[in-house]
Amino acid sequence: MNRRSRLTASALALALAGLLPAACSSSATPAASTSTPASAASSAAPAISGTVTVFAAASLQKTFTSLATTFEHDHPGVTVKFSFGGSDTLAAQITQGAPADVFASANTSTMQTVQTAGDATGTPTVFVKNTLEIATAPGNPKNIKTLADLDKSGIKVALCAKTVPCGSAAVKALAAAKVSLTPVTYETDVTSALTKVELGEVDAALVYHSDILGAGGKVDGVVFSTASDAVNSYPIDVLKGAPNPTAAAAFVAFILSSPSRQVLLAAGFQAP
Amino acid sequence: MTRTAGRTGRQRRRRGPGTRAPALLLLPSLIGLAFLVLPVVGLLVRTPWRQLTRDLSAGDTWTALRLSLECATAATGVSLLFGIPLAWLLVRTDLPGRGLARALVMVPLVLPPVVGGMALLLVFGRAGILGIYLDRWFGVSLPFTTPGVIMAETFVAMPFLVVSVETALRTLDPDIEEAAATSGASTWQIFRHITLPNLLPAIGAGAVLAWARALGEFGATITFAGNFPGTTQTMPLAVYLAFQEDPQSAIVLSVVLLAVSITVLAALRDRLFTRV
């Protein structure tokens, strides 16, 4: 099936999914609702099946994995498959033709890459925001209080590579604080930077607040003053050429729904 | 070419390359060849040659390439230093647990490199089983350093050398060594003057394999040694990061790495294998 006929088919499926609940309930909602994927995704729509392949930023791993369990429970017969990684790696894989249904990125510029390549279907929706924080060993033994403390001799710091969202956010935060910092490593995604702190290989890393919360006491978080200059917005969108566009739209709508937002907020993300 | 009557089986076998291949073997072999060669061709076809000069003049590329070559060579050196004695030990001695040791040597060959890097981190890292003492007593921390890269590369590359030398040792006729022993030569003299010279081709082949494996090492390096330009960012890491930001530039870097490794392998091949 080529891209156009697949799109036609998905539009048809969306229309059907949108009409079904309308036909059941007596309130005649106008057919215009079919243009928004959200209406197709209400858990009343039984039309979805198969596998949804979601490419998501590494920082979403914990929340998305647990949310997917709920989604699969709501939609028997649907399986959610994830590829978690640095957003830029995922974006590169998508623009090189990886068969993904949904992309959730840790910043808007990475999503922009995918949009520019013509691989996003519509306007990506920002569903959460995330703030950087300094992760230290439990109890903060090196007594790190500010970004400037990271530049002291004897302090080993891991940063994300500037190609990944946590890295570009770190660049902004450090510039705003006028701190120039030489880390011992530029990690390729936020979770590997966090792991280096958990293992005690570095004294600190700049990671997201949600990662520190997710680490459950294995690291401490230190809030710094210029964190507000480095807030990342997380957009999500269905991808063009998605093998399963109906289920993809349902998954995106599910992530945008308010129960999902509660899960994300509880995990340390901020409302957009 | 038809088979001539009267030619012995041995002669026929020796003629190898001229033999007409049955279609049953020819087709899969060509598919196999195409599968191995096509990706490399694809890389060359998609190379933005105009960008090549620009990317080559970037200092980062040379830094990463030099580090790659230095670390791979150092890892090969370390592998030779410890791998040859290890191979000898595995074949020529009757120490208890030799069979187990032989199996353990193979483990890095099948272990995912990332797991290898993790394991190295847990042992030699600043908070690792041994690393904690290195740090406490000598102030030495291996992760995020160039020696860390060499360790990661040696971990994945040394088994190639050991296996290559071990196989050759096993096929080496022990009679010569025994004859030397009965004439009063010491074990070290036998090893130095008889065993080692006979092993040279295998050592050469093993060293080339180990060097090539070390040059391409990615997973163990990024996990154990991290990624910092100039100290731990080797070419494979540079390629991976470039792929995220600028895929065109990643292709250019890949072609550079490909060209360098093929050149070195070809040069070594002439030197090492003509004697075989």
Short characterization:
The complex is a heterodimer of chains A (272) and B (276). Chain A is α/β, with parallel strands linked by helices.
Helix content of chain A: 25-40%
Average of per-residue pLDDT values of chain B = 86
- How many individual β-strands of chain B? 0
Major pleated sheet of chain A? 9 strands, mixed
**How far do the termini of chain B sit from each other?**
29 Å
So what's the oligomer here?
heterodimer
Q: In angstroms, what is the radius of gyration of chain A? A: 20 Å
Average pLDDT of chain A: 84
Q: Which structural class do you get from the secondary structure elements of chain A?
A: alpha/beta
Contiguous low-pLDDT stretches of chain A (5 residues minimum) are: 1-44
Q: What overall geometry of chain B do the principal axes of the alpha carbons give?
A: globular
Largest sheet of chain B: none
Name the poorly predicted regions of chain B: 1-13
- Radius of gyration of chain B from the CA trace? 23 Å
What does this 3D model show about the protein?
The complex is a heterodimer of chains A (272) and B (276). With 272 residues, chain A is of the alpha/beta class. Chain A has helices at 3-24, 37-40, 61-74, 87-95, 108-116, 165-176, 190-198, 209-214, 245-256, 258-266, and strands spanning 50-57, 78-85, 102-104, 125-136, 157-160, 185-187, 204-208, 220-222, 231-238. In chain A, strands 1, 2, 3, 4, 5, 6, 7, 8 and 9 form a nine-stranded mixed beta sheet that branches. In chain A, β1, α3 and β2 (78-85) form a beta-alpha-beta unit. Chain A is elongated. Chain B has 276 residues and is mainly alpha-helical. Chain B is 77% helix and 0% strand. Chain B is built from 13 helices and no strands. In chain B, α4 runs antiparallel to α10 and α8 (146-171) crosses α11. The radius of gyration of chain B is 23 Å and the shape is globular. The chains are: A alpha/beta (272), B mainly alpha (276). Chains A and B meet through α4 and β6 of A and α12 of B.
